[in-house]
Amino acid sequence: MESSSSTSTEEKKKPIVIITIGMAGAGKSTFVQRINSHLHSLDPPAPPYLLNLDPAVTHVPFEANIDIRDTVNYKEVMKQYNLGPNGGILTALNLFTTKFDQVLELVEKRSETVDYVILDTPGQIEIFTWSASGAIITDAVASSFPTVVAYIIDTPRTTAPATFMSNMLYACSILYKTKLPFILVFNKTDVQPHDFAVEWMQDFEAFQMALASHSGTTDADGEPTYMNSLMNSMSLVLDEFYKNLKAVGVSSMTGAGVKEFFEAVDASRSEYEKEYLPELTRARAARDQSLQAVKEESMTRFMKDLAIDQIQNPNAALRDRWRPEDEEDDDDDPVNIVDRSEEPWPGQYIDVTQSRRGDSESMVWPRPG
Ligand SMILES: Nc1nc2c(ncn2[C@@H]2O[C@H](COP(=O)(O)OP(=O)(O)OP(=O)(O)O)[C@@H](O)[C@H]2O)c(=O)[nH]1
C-alpha cells in the first residue's frame, strides 16, 4: 500500500474516498473504526480523513474530522419542521448537503497528506441511498476524487437464501445507481464465515440447491412456491451483476480480512479511472452541450421579444437601463463546516452547533418559498 511519505518525489495521488453503506446494524461504524485503526497502525501511519454523516448516531467509535452533528442538530430539525425521526435525519442530511461544497474544500486541503477519506453514512440505509442529498454527496465526491462504495453486509444474518438474495438485489440497485467501483464487505466473519456467500455468487446452481433445500420453498404438494421460482430466476440475473463486484470477508471485531479489503480498494482506483471517469467526462460534455443549446435558444427568443418590445414601446425601452447599484447582494449566510482536527479548536462553531451544545437559542434554517 502506498503511504503519503513514499510519494514525496513523484506527484501525490489523490486520496481515494470510501463510502460505507449498509443496513442498520450491519456494522458500518465498527468497520470504519477498524479500518481507521488499521491505517493508524501502518508503518508509517496513514491516518485517514473521516466524515460522519449520521446526524442521529449517539456514539461514534472514531474521532471524525467532520461530523454532521457539529452542523445540524437533528432533534431541533425534528421540532422545527414537525418531523418524525426518519424525516428529521433526512432533512438534517439535506441541510448539510447544501453546504457540502465546504466539506469538499476541507477534504481538498488535506488531499496532499491523506491517502483515504472515509464516509460513514446514516444507519437507515435508504436515507442515503434513495435521497437526493445522498446522490448529490456521492456525485460530488466521485467527481472530485477516486471513489469506491463499500457495502457492508451482516453475514450471520444473510445465511438464508431469501435474505441473501434481498441483500444482493439491494446492493445491485446501488451499484447501478452510482455506477462506482463496488466492494461487498461480508462483515462479522468471526461469527459466520462468508464462504457460503462466495460459493453462491460463483455458482448459481449451488445457490439454487440451497434454495431448494431451505424450508418453506415448496408448498404442500411439494411444488416450488412463487417466492422460490422468483428467486431462482433472479439468481440467473444476478450472475451478471456478481461479475462486476469484489467481495471480501471481514471481521470488524478481530480485524481479519482488513488487508484484503484495502487490496480491493486499491484495485478499485484503476477501475474508477478506466471506467467511471471517462463515463463522467462524457456525461458532463453531453450535459454542457445540451445546456448550451437551451441557452442559445432562450437567448434568441429573448432578443426577438426585446426587438418587438422596443418597436412597440420606444419610450419605455429608453428608460429601461440596468443599474448595478440597484442589485441586491444575495449571498447566503455562510455556514462554516468545522474540521475538528484543525486549529484553533474548539471555537469556530456556528450558531446551530451552540444550540446543540445546550444553548437555549433556537436554530433557524431557511425554509423553501
Ligand atoms: N461479532 C461481531 N460483531 C460486530 C462486528 N461488527 C460490528 N459488530 C456489532 O454489530 C453491532 C452493530 O454495529 P454498528 O457498527 O453499530 O453497526 P452500524 O451499521 O453502524 O449500525 P447503525 O448505527 O444502525 O448504522 C454492534 O453491536 C457491533 O459490536 C463484527 O465484525 N463481529
Automatic annotation (TrEMBL):
Q: Its domain of life? A: Eukaryota
InterPro entries for the chain: Gpn (IPR004130), Gpn1/Npa3/XAB1 (IPR030230), P-loop_NTPase (IPR027417)
First-tier enzyme category under EC: hydrolase
- This enzyme's EC code(s): 3.6.5.-
Where does this one sit in the cell? Cytoplasm; Nucleus
Q: Where is this region: Disordered?
A: 317-369
Q: Compositional bias of type Acidic residues: which residue ranges? A: 325-334
One Pfam family for this entry, by name?
ATP_bind_1
Could you list this entry's UniProt keywords, alphabetically sorted: Cytoplasm, GTP-binding, Hydrolase, Nucleotide-binding, Phosphoprotein
| Listed GO MF terms | GTP binding; GTPase activity
* GO CC annotations on file: cytoplasm; nucleus
Q: Which family does it belong to?
A: Belongs to the GPN-loop GTPase family.
- Tell me the function of this protein: Small GTPase required for proper nuclear import of RNA polymerase II (RNAPII). May act at an RNAP assembly step prior to nuclear import.
Q: How does it assemble?
A: Binds to RNA polymerase II.
What protein am I looking at? GPN-loop GTPase
From which source organism is this entry?
Answer: Neolentinus lepideus HHB14362 ss-1
